[in-house]
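quick one, two chains, predict together pls
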Amino acid sequence: MDFGESAERRDIRMAVRRLCERFSAAYWRDLDAKGAYPDELVRALTDAGWLAALIPRRYGGAELGVGDAAAILEEINASGGNAAVAHAQMYTMGTLLRHGSDAQKERYLPALARGELRLQAFGVTEPDAGSETTRLRTAAVRRGDRYVVNGQKVFISRAQHSDLMLLLARTTPYDELADKTEGLSVFVVDLRAALAAGQIEIRPLPTMMNHHSTTIFMRDLEVPAADRIGDEGRGFRYILDSWNAERILIASESLGDGRWFTERAARYATERVVFGRPIGANQGVQFPIAQAHAQLQAARLLRDRAAWLFDRRERCGAEANMAKLLASQAAWAAANACLDTHGGYGFATEYDVERKFRETRLLLVAPISNNLVLAYVGQHVLGMPRSY
Amino acid sequence: MKFLVCLKQVPDSTVRVKVGGDRRSIAAEGITWSISPYDEYAIELALERKDADASTVVSVVTVGPARSRDALRQALAMGCDDATLVTSEADLSALDVAKALAAVVNEAKPDVVLCGKQASDDDQGLVGPALAEALGWPHVGMLTKLVPGASGLELWREVEGGHEVWSAAPPVVALVHKSEKEPRYPSLPGIMKAKRKEIPEKDLASCGVTPGAPRPEVALMDLPPQRGQGKVWKLDGDAKGVAEQVAKALREEAKVV
């Protein structure tokens, strides 16, 4: 068994670190204070090819695997940044890559690879359908060569900073379905055209961290039938596929956060002298940091295994979900250890700990609540009765 | 025009360096390595010439342990054309490194050799001038800009309060202080291209170098003493009185004024 990283993976990590060094803690602090979007960073990531990592070479991308994408996002978060500002382009891509037609790929992927188009938004959740995706109500009704969509989406990140949005909408009423996982379809929505036509409204939804979340209202939104991905009614299946990649990538962001917290905490614990000695010489301070580090290392192994399975196109639902669970918990343990270590200074914005603390807290809940991961493991891995 | 950039792999600037058990070297375990920053500026200057004229060839070379291959790949990913690794696991003197580099230069026959003005690990700044001496080439230090000129090259160098412009006909060795633009970072397409390039490896013997040039040895390596706690003075009185007490304390206790 080889636990080492390839030279190429090391190069990827180093290059992403180099790029992120140009975007300092002050840059992120300023964005956070203003609720602003890091256009400059996203442009730099795009220009250097990082957001086209998963796009096949024939469409202008690098055709890397999820394991490499995981390293890219992990390094962004480990640098003190927040890869959430651009991560959707990584995992949303999967639905288009695996289920899009050749014509759709030709139309979108080269422009995405060149950075002329941004695919940063994923419209799934609704006010009455969060984790229970099959209950979503946004309806797409076929009329000739197009669909007319009406409904509302909530917690849709980066819709104001994206040209395209993948949209999951109902094409068969829920009550008419024998299999409740059918009846949903995926569409590529051109947000710019929809906004210009007044068929869509995007309202910012401020949250406890700078996450660029929005609520989206669709009123008689017209989507060409040619922009439906795959078969009508199979959308939930297509989205499920991309969720495994999403879990692995979110786990990687958590691991990056965790590395940042433990490194910061260990440094501060070594430098800060109280009662005549570094506070890290006290086991009450030292052990939680060491514990978090150990948890992160374990979660990393599971993340690597999940990515390895994914890239071999093997089943990885259990591993991807468990990696997300353990990595987000490990990052949260590291966040708390780091905040405790810094004492009052941890709450001062200039130390960045409180910002990262808020950001990593989200990952226990989104994009999937850890309780639902446990429910999945209990039911589908261990064969226990459904608990929800 | 053909450029050869000599680079050194050093601990990354974000690494918190620890002194090794022998107290004469740093503890290498767990270190992240990268290209020395002044060498990155040198690469950037050369690549800017390549941007301006696609026929320009930019090669890189390093003398160092096998891990230095990562630094060469990083340079290839930034856009350099080819790389050569001269391996030596031993810690070499600057003179031995310069001799090995001279052998590579004599074989590659570049028009311009660029080096960072010093490496960020030992800050000695010896290799560049020693290389120019070994080659018998002119050398210019503190380079910040390099453009084609009437008599070959215009070499801009930083001096106190301004800059000088020198001209030189190739071949020349120039030591880089800074580039106008920040060094470009390796791109993903660059990494993919670098992956396909072979990096030929030489040893010191094939460069005609038998290590052993005279050198000073490091006697002791130590980190600065840990800073103590600050001291809080409780001072009373008006502003003038407080200022006098502070000045007195700074002079007599802290001994800093």
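The beta strands of chain A are 119-123, 139-143, 146-157, 164-170, 184-190, 200-204, 213-224, 228-229, 273-274, 277-278.
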